[in-house]
């Protein structure tokens, strides 16, 4: 059990990212100096929103040049820190070679950051952003789990290089993190495993994250004839940031934490928007039949393969979030608030 000194700086990888931005905000507001490891510290446009938060707080942000695939490049940013937050992760749905474009960067990046932490004196805790994708691939996996519910004890065994390689990359990266953690005893590792992350973003401009493209198709008329009733978990980005913060500063924090506020599906998510936005926007009001999706899905979107539709549509997702509530005191925001705050971003940016 390690107590962390809040007067010491902390390092955040991928500090300009969606989740990391809210984490950096929380850290600065708590008066903690942030060592932000970014690919290009001179790109002031990308860091402007963080500088603004820092100037309004009584803490400091310092930028360091680092690259996930450049060995040892995080070493300088870690000096003097007791906590390392590893949030950076390659995310692309546009890949040619899943091993080379997804798995290798995720695993090598994790190894690079954690091996540097291993070689840096004074590090007491490493918090890694993993994913519920390291626990399951499809909603049917939740139904097949003991008691029909996903827990932190479960590892994803159904993803592969050929099927859902992004999920597979998350499994391999988290396994690598635990392997390195177990090879030393200087710091302990905590992983945060969020489900689909929604909520407003800090940086100006529309986000390119997966969650916003889903939201866009719910709001721009793409799905007005019906939305796939696909089981999944949902969590607010601000709750995910809070979870990272508490994972670092709660001495008893240990192991993995499912960070998912709601067991839901796309139809329920769309329905939360109807009272406020239903009059003005072509939001879906019903589910699209599974048989129809099996016919048109693969043509409409390459991710909607028949095996994927079969294992996710009309299946119930259930994850147990009691560990994070009990041990880290996380109180999840209502789904309606998360959905409305997310949709408001698309409205303001004229995306819908």
From TrEMBL:
MF (Gene Ontology) = oxidoreductase activity, acting on the CH-OH group of donors, NAD or NADP as acceptor
Q: Which residues form a coiled coil?
A: none
Cite the entry's keywords alphabetically.
Answer: Oxidoreductase
InterPro entries listed in its UniProt record: Epimerase_deHydtase, NAD(P)-bd_dom_sf, NAD(P)_dehydrat-like
Classify the source by domain of life.
Bacteria
Positions of the NAD-dependent epimerase/dehydratase domain: 10-253
> Pfam families given for it?
Epimerase
Q: Which PANTHER family does the entry link to?
A: NAD DEPENDENT EPIMERASE/DEHYDRATASE (PTHR10366), VPS9 DOMAIN-CONTAINING PROTEIN (PTHR10366:SF812)
List the protein's name: NAD-dependent epimerase/dehydratase family protein
